[in-house]
Amino acid sequence: MIIGWGGPGRGVGASARVGAVADNGDVSLYRDEGIVLRTQKLGEADRIITVLTRAHGRIRVVGKGVRRTSSRFGARLEPFMHVDLQLATGRTLDVVTQVETLDPFGRTICADYGSYTAGTAVLETAERLTAEEREPALQHYLLLLGALRALAHGEHDAGLVLDAFVLRGLSIAGFAPSFAECARCAADGPHRLFSVQAGGMVCTACRPPGTVVPSPEAVALLSALLTGDWPVADASDARARRDASGITAAFLQWHLERGLRSLQFVERRGDEQAESVARGTRGGGGVREEPSATSEVERLYREIGDAEVEQA
Ligand SMILES: [Zn+2]
């Protein structure tokens, strides 16, 4: 039996059979730790589980029999759970053979509505920012681990944790917003105008159409969330949080719709979602969306109300 990190046996042009053994008859096993992002039903009792792993990036694996009440590890393979996995390489999807719980984040996060809604948006954002399966994404993984730990332990306001996760996740993806110097010409700040398209604060000379004027408190909060300055973030008031959240949402939506797609980072599923968002924002005349087409991130941010930011 081969024990190793993603050893041989991943066939090309494989059959649709899930969890088949390698051609030589040996099952190739490997271990990794990860965080469960999402689960989908598969057949009678199985699930496809989307996991962001430490070493293998985002992967989809099969949990056999996990929907049976007698399943030994069904509850460990729920969203938010931080687990150590042993996986058997399959022809199409790898199969979970062992699960150990490292942190049962789901238990505490799901017990609090604010943490749950923010956490759900965090998981979805993590999936959309790691568009390529099996592309190592250690920084995204560590960021997600930190965010879920903060939510589970109630370390900070759940909305602040979500916004910090989004801003820092976009930075890891190569879209760091600029909250001090001008995002266009790098002139020293502070500047009063914010432009989603330009990528942050802009000077009056660079001012593109559609800028907003966030309060200095909101800009200070955004900067603190991006850099992880929690004493400043925790001390912010409700108005600054609302404005910062609206700007963060607009920034994320901009990149999910245009930036990520234009760089071809977005796989098919993300693309469809981005298009459904684009159709939705154009309003009227579009195809009527099923409720499932509205992502948790967009719904949550709509709830927060990104219209709160004063128009310049
Ligand atoms: Zn400028």
CATH H-tier superfamily of the largest domain: Recombination protein O, C-terminal domain
Order of strands across the widest beta sheet? 1-2-3-5-4
CATH architecture of the largest domain: Up-down Bundle
Work out the number of β strands: 7
Q: What is the domain tally?
A: 2
* Distinct ligand kinds: zinc ion
Please identify the structural class as seen in this structure: alpha+beta
CATH fold type of the largest domain: de novo design (two linked rop proteins)
Q: Biggest sheet: strands, sense, closure? A: 5 strands, mixed, barrel
What does the average pLDDT come to?
A: 80
Shape field: elongated
Can you offer a commentary on this structure?
The chain has nine helices and seven strands; from the N terminus they run βββββααααββααααα. It has 312 residues and is of the alpha+beta class. It has two domains: 29-102, Nucleic acid-binding proteins (OB fold (Dihydrolipoamide Acetyltransferase, E2P), Beta Barrel), CATH 2.40.50.140; 108-308, Recombination protein O, C-terminal domain (de novo design (two linked rop proteins), Up-down Bundle). The strands form two sheets. It has a five-stranded mixed beta barrel with strand order 1-2-3-5-4. α2 packs parallel to α4, α4 (158-172) crosses α5 (216-227) and α7 (238-262) runs antiparallel to α9. The N and C termini lie far apart (65 Å). It binds zinc ion. Zinc ion (ZN) binds at residues 182, 184-185, 187, 202-203, 205-206.
